[in-house]
Amino acid sequence: MADFSEAIISIRPNFAEAILSGRKTVELRRRIPSVQVGSRLWIYATRPTASVVGFSNIDTIFRGTPQAVWEIYCDNIAINRIDFDHYFDGAREAIGIRLSRVQRIQPISIERLRVWKKGFHPPQVLARITASEAKRLLQMSACAEDNASNVVRLLRA
Prior knowledge:
Layout: E1 6-11, H1 13-21, E2 26-29, E3 40-45, E4 51-64, H2 66-73, H3 81-87, E5 94-109, H4 110-116, E6 126-129, H5 131-140, E7 143-146, E8 151-154
Parallel strand pairs: 1-3
Antiparallel strand pairs: 1-6, 2-5, 3-4, 4-5, 7-8
């Protein structure tokens, strides 16, 4: 495994799908989560999906006024201006997380996640996981990581 932190982030299913399809390359937040550039984010799609559906690396974390973030990243966030303004209503700052190396995986259901990690509850925003927990998620997702090249190979057809 590469030497960087791992976390699970909760994302609404429509935005999770937009990330996995490449239409959304920037995840928005009202406050900055406790992660670093280079971390791997496991994407947990909230209900009704209720599964980890993919992962990506954090390429950049940026912050600015909502207006500045909109002007620079509006084509990368898969949200219209009305919904963007509603989400950031009253916020003085907007946080953007630019995602790279997005990988769709075989979904890992909430039921399987609760076997993987006793007492697992989807994070409200984000939850750190250990390297060994991340390795187990890779195994459960039918993926294996090529450490030498940062390539992810699907093991199941």
